[in-house]
Amino acid sequence: MPQTDESSLNSARAALVEALIRTGQDDRDAFRTVYTMTSAKLFGICLRICVDRQGAEDVLHDVYITIWNRAGAYQPGRASPISWLATIARNRAIDWRRRQGRNRAAPVDEADSVPDGTLRQDDALLAAEASARLHQCLEAIEQRQRGAIRSAFFGGLTYAELAERQAVPLGTMKSWVRRGLLALRGCLDAGT
Predict the structure, then answer these.
(1) Cα(99)–Cα(145) distance, rounded to whole angstroms?
(2) By the 8 A CB rule, do 39 and 118 touch?
């Protein structure tokens, strides 16, 4: 990757970290910046899991309320800003889906068709770099763990749904995901 692209990625990441920190200090302009930089990505996560567009919009609203209330707890050294935000979106969307009694997530193709008019070039580069690193690290972990993590985090399935699909006890599935996440974190940490 050329030096200028890496510099742009680092600059975008630093801007998001700074905006999150300032949001934690009740800075409304910083919160607006966080929304502008992340709303398209987080909406895609919500839509993929919720399936229903109106539901995804409602969940996204809840996601940003949560971000506003919890931004002060964000610790830059523990997680990348987009990972922290995506986890909030994923958890809120799964909670919504459970309340709705839905059993399946939408196919990934539907989430990819969401219009994205707000994504800036530096955000796109940052997302591409993070995605490539994540997928590289996913390929390095054990196959059962990799499959469980992909189904849970990219497909929006719960532990119970994963255990049922794989015909294994719930505790076994939780162990697979936990061990896989630990291995994934080790790989991602080694790359930073």
Answers:
(1) 27
(2) yes
User: pLDDT (tens digit, 9 = 90+) per residue, 82-136?
Assistant: 888 988 999 999 889 888 874 454 554 444 444 444 545 555 555 666 677 777 8
Angle ∠(135,138,143) on CA atoms, nearest 5 = 135
Nearest to 188, CA basis, from 78, 41, 45, 71: 78
C-beta neighbour count of 146 within 10 angstroms = 18
Cβ atoms of residues 162 and 170 within 8 Å:
no
Chain centroid to CA 67: 13
DSSP string covering 75-116, please?
A: -TTTS-HHHHHHHHHHHHHHHHHHHHT---PPPHHHHHTS--
Tokens coding 131:
């995605």
The two structure tokens encoding residue 62: 């809840």
Which amino acid is residue 93, in one-letter code?
A
Q: What domains sit in the chain, N to C, each tagged with a CATH number?
A: 3-117 (1.10.1740.10)
pTM > 0.85? no
